[in-house]
Specification:
Layout (H helix, E strand, L loop, with lengths): L2 H20 L5 H38 L9 H16 L7 H13 L1 H33 L6 H27 L2 H5 L9 H26 L2 H29 L5 H17 L9 H13 L4 H25 L11
Length: 334
């Protein structure tokens, strides 16, 4: 990536941090009340992500190094691109910023089509690991909290099961045959856009087909496919420790299984409202709802308390990710 473009990413990240600090949604009275317990538990909440990002980076490294090229991405640089990429994804609507950043960093070494296919495939694997977490959480809920399931929840489970089957088919077809060209063809039928989409399609069809070929190539390598999915799923499970420590700080008699359900439900709500930067409001509402279902007291307070922790944790890791943009950019791949 050119230094000028990298500086643009850096400046955007700094601006995002400033905006987040100015719009932090916990008042000083709440901050003063929560500060002692926050100081005690914050290192654990933020520290969990050292290991979450390690498994994310391992999955990304495995995917990149399994591509049709002779370059090797080290774990250290995979970790850097992972943390910086997620920092930009956190601070942009639709989580758009992280993907282009990774593509531009890798493109100089393996070419844009291969870089794009690796990033797209990793993003698909990241989403698929979320779906696997949600599915396993439903099974966990039915095993441990069967008596808490009312007709409304059973209806939600049925809808989710149907959506899960469709999602698995969509991802299987996308991994097997590629999906960039098929998804882009949708724009060819959108009013006011189809003219410009057709022009781009005709000009870049060969490159998009190459991306799809690379995605299909990686799918035919079971070690890369299932290995990266397993590492992403483990990262999701480790992520549950964040909510385990948050609920402990709140004084709730929580178990690790509770924390997995809280993570799964809150991330589901956040991803359904993915167009909100940093999932503002969606995650807190999801937290309050699942806490109420699990039977803990003061679900609204838990939502606010969790918001306080997660926003601070996000700020810490966004600051780290933005700082890494200018560090260690020589010989990312060998």
């Amino acid at each position: 990536m050119k230094p000028f473009v990298r500086n643009i990413f850096l400046l955007f990240g700094i601006a995002a941090i400033i905006v987040m600090l100015c719009t932090f949604d916990v008042d000083y009275h709440q901050l003063r009340e929560k500060l002692p317990r926050a100081i005690a538990y914050l290192p654990f909440v933020a520290g969990v992500w050292i290991f979450v990002y390690a498994f994310n980076a391992g999955a990304f490294q495995l995917i990149v190094n399994s591509g049709t090229h002779d370059k090797h991405l080290s774990f250290r640089h995979a970790y850097k691109l992972t943390v910086s990429g997620f920092a930009f994804s956190y601070t942009t609507p639709f989580g758009f910023g992280g993907g282009p950043y990774r593509v531009m960093e890798l493109a100089a070494y393996i070419g844009t089509p291969r870089a794009m296919s690796s990033v797209v495939l990793y993003s698909m694997m990241h989403i698929l690991s979320h779906i696997c977490l949600w599915a396993s959480s439903i099974i966990l809920f039915l095993i441990i909290y069967y008596e808490k399931a009312d007709p409304f929840l059973w209806s939600c489970f049925g809808i989710f099961a149907a959506a899960f089957i469709f999602a698995i088919y969509f991802f299987y077809a996308g991994y097997k045959n590629g999906l960039i060209v098929k998804l882009y063809k949708i724009f060819l039928y959108v009013p006011f856009v189809k003219k410009y989409a057709r022009r781009f399609y005709d000009k870049n069809l060969e490159s998009m087909e190459q991306v799809d070929l690379n995605i299909a190539y990686l799918h035919r390598q079971p070690r890369a496919f299932y290995g990266s999915l397993l590492m992403e799923y483990i990262a999701r499970v480790i992520n549950a420790l964040e909510f385990y420590f948050i609920l402990l700080a709140f004084g709730a008699p929580v178990t690790f299984w509770d924390a997995i359900l809280v993570l799964a439900f809150s991330s589901l709500m956040g991803n359904l409202l993915f167009f909100f930067p940093m999932q503002l409001g969606a995650r807190e509402g999801g937290l309050a709802l699942i806490i109420k279902i699990l039977g803990y007291a003061n679900p609204g307070g838990v939502g606010i308390f969790s918001s306080f922790f997660t926003r601070i944790r996000e700020l810490i890791w966004i600051f780290i990710g933005v700082s890494l943009v200018k560090i260690g950019n020589k010989s990312i791949m060998k």
